[in-house]
Design brief:
alpha/beta; 10 helices; 13 strands
């Protein structure tokens, strides 16, 4: 029997505060000195009704810690029994040190820690690395965590329609935390396939340019910027062949999966991706309508949501499809 790494549990942490798309439009109007979005336009364009927003004192690490505590309780594993903690998120508490240190200080683990950052694919890459370290014998139990407070990267000021479109991705984001616990499996269940690809020529299609050597201190570069239409087109052009090849390599069909967890940024974007790939919409766990674009927390939150209501459980086969600016595509298949 092949050695596999088992997913012991997945948990999410969602802020209590809810912000509707109508409230987002009001905030844009309030900050824009005369420009006012057409009423209902954000929901009509994105398909997003509402999203969760973290309180001002809540950090990325706080949401990650909430999710970590829940997944450890699910698996009945003590914090001191975790061999490695990976903070795998697009967001972070600060530039230095690794946010994983802050998660550990709040959570009470006492193991090596580090961050993994690859935009919205960060969490899947964290799971990929956890699997490799467990299979290699370096670790027994690995905790992968994400905390996204993307609501603080929104530029509310839009003086005209062009700036509204430039800032639009920020109007779709939602805050969330997630965590997964992985360990060496004792049976055939676990991660059965994984494949990751990066085509980095298009890195500039979605950016937060600040806080690095390129723009270390300019406030205007701390906001999320994107060319959304071009990003979608590139994902479909480059991502679809990657998924098709992965399905052939794995010898699987979409019908083999109980649920498919796809990173979601908006309803139109999701439907275009499903139409291009042939993924049946009824297999996709929908989160974006009520939770918005949760960046790297998107896929694990969807998994936790499906598990909580019994849509998937032990014995089910699921697939994760991650799409990240970069361009990065991640596919992971798991027998729960």
């Amino acid at each position: 029997m092949a050695k596999r790494v088992r997913l012991l549990g997945v948990a999410s942490a969602l802020p209590e505060s809810i912000r509707s798309s109508a409230e987002v439009e009001n905030l844009v109007s309030h900050h824009s000195g005369g420009f006012q979005p057409r009423a209902g336009s954000i929901e009509a364009l994105s398909g997003i009704r509402e999203r969760r927003v973290a309180a001002g004192h809540v950090q990325c690490s706080d949401l990650a810690v909430q999710a970590c505590r829940r997944v450890l309780a699910q698996a009945r594993v003590h914090a001191e029994d975790v061999d490695l903690l990976i903070f795998a998120s697009a967001g972070q508490d600060l530039a230095e040190p690794a946010t994983a240190n802050i998660v550990q200080a709040k959570l009470g683990t006492s193991c090596p820690v580090f961050d993994v950052k690859n935009a919205c694919n960060s969490f899947l890459n964290g799971m990929q690395l956890a699997e490799s370290l467990i299979l290699g014998g370096a670790c027994r139990t690995v905790l992968v965590a994400a905390g996204e407070v993307s609501s603080r990267a929104i530029d509310w000021k839009a003086r005209d329609l062009s700036e509204f479109w430039r800032n639009f991705p920020g109007y779709t984001v939602g805050d969330a935390g997630a965590a997964a616990l992985l360990a060496q499996g004792t049976d055939e269940r676990g991660i059965i396939f994984r494949q990751f690809h990066s085509i980095s020529d298009h890195w500039d299609l979605m950016t937060v340019l600040g806080c690095g050597s390129m723009h270390p201190r300019a406030v205007e570069h701390t906001y999320l910027r994107t060319n959304g239409t071009r990003l979608k087109d590139v994902f479909i052009e480059l991502g679809v062949p990657i998924l098709e090849r992965a399905m052939r390599d794995a010898g699987r069909r979409f019908a083999d999966f109980r649920r498919i967890f796809v990173h979601q940024v908006s309803i139109p974007y999701l439907r275009d991706m499903l139409a291009a790939t042939g993924i049946p919409e009824e297999l996709v766990e929908l989160t974006v309508v009520d939770l918005g674009n949760m960046a790297a927390a998107s896929i694990p939150v969807a998994m936790a949501q499906a598990m909580e209501r019994g849509a998937v459980g032990p014995g089910d086969r699921v697939m994760c499809l991650g799409l990240a600016s970069g361009i990065s595509v991640g596919i992971m298949m798991i027998d729960l």
